[in-house]
């Protein structure tokens, strides 16, 4: 049997597969790198857009992994018997369940593997530094840069330069009313 596929049919299958994978989350390390490059090229609107997307992506990936881990832990409980065979059977089943759950919700896991440098930057909350500076450079006269500073200051209370930035923002009139701060602070990326 001779089967010939037209190039149009192959292209449509390829486009459909790409379209279905496009609904998944963008990798946070790629968004972070884009934001850093935009910062050094002076595109501060691009920094805000990409950095907020990177923070959202990072948070979504972490929360999805935790949800999948808890879901699979409930599906494959460890019982009272402590035989080696049973233990490793449960461990392998949980791992397979987690892989399937994460693949279903996020797409290919290899896309969301983040380098250790980027993970350390996120743990040290460096994206908030970029966001704060980008907000300042854009001249946003709202509570957003102040909130970014306050959020960062809560996690890094010993940093003198953060207190200086916070005082500068307060002095320049970036501070809105306290209600605005709490409303903006509840944004997803903060």
Could you please describe the fold and organization of this structure?
The structure is a single chain. This protein is mainly α and 190 residues long. It folds into two domains: 100 residues, no CATH class; 51 residues, no CATH class. The protein has nine helices and no strands. The radius of gyration is 23 Å and the shape is elongated. The relative contact order is 0.10.
How is this fold's topology laid out?
Layout: H1 7-21, H2 28-41, H3 44-75, H4 84-106, H5 116-123, H6 126-138, H7 143-155, H8 160-171, H9 178-185
Keywords: Glycoprotein, Signal
Domain Leprecan-like alpha-helical: 27-137
InterPro entries: Collagen_mod_leprecan (IPR052284), Leprecan_dom (IPR056585)
């Amino acid at each position: 049997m001779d089967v010939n596929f037209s190039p149009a049919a192959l292209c449509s299958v390829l486009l459909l597969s790409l379209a279905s994978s496009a609904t998944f989350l963008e990798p946070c390390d790629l968004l972070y790198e884009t934001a850093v490059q935009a910062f050094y090229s002076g595109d501060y609107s691009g920094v805000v857009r990409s950095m907020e997307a990177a923070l959202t992506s990072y948070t979504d990936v972490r929360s999805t992994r935790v949800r999948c881990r808890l879901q699979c832990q409930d599906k494959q409980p460890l019982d009272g018997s402590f035989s080696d065979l049973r233990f490793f059977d449960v461990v392998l089943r949980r791992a397979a369940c987690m892989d399937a759950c994460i693949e279903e919700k996020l797409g290919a896991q290899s896309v969301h593997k983040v380098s250790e440098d980027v993970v350390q930057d996120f743990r040290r909350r460096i994206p908030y530094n970029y966001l704060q500076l980008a907000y300042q450079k854009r001249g946003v006269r709202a509570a957003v840069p102040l909130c970014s500073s306050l959020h960062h200051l809560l996690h890094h209370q010993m940093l003198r330069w953060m207190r200086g930035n916070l005082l500068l923002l307060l002095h320049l009139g970036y501070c809105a009313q306290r209600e605005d701060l709490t409303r903006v602070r509840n944004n997803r990326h903060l």
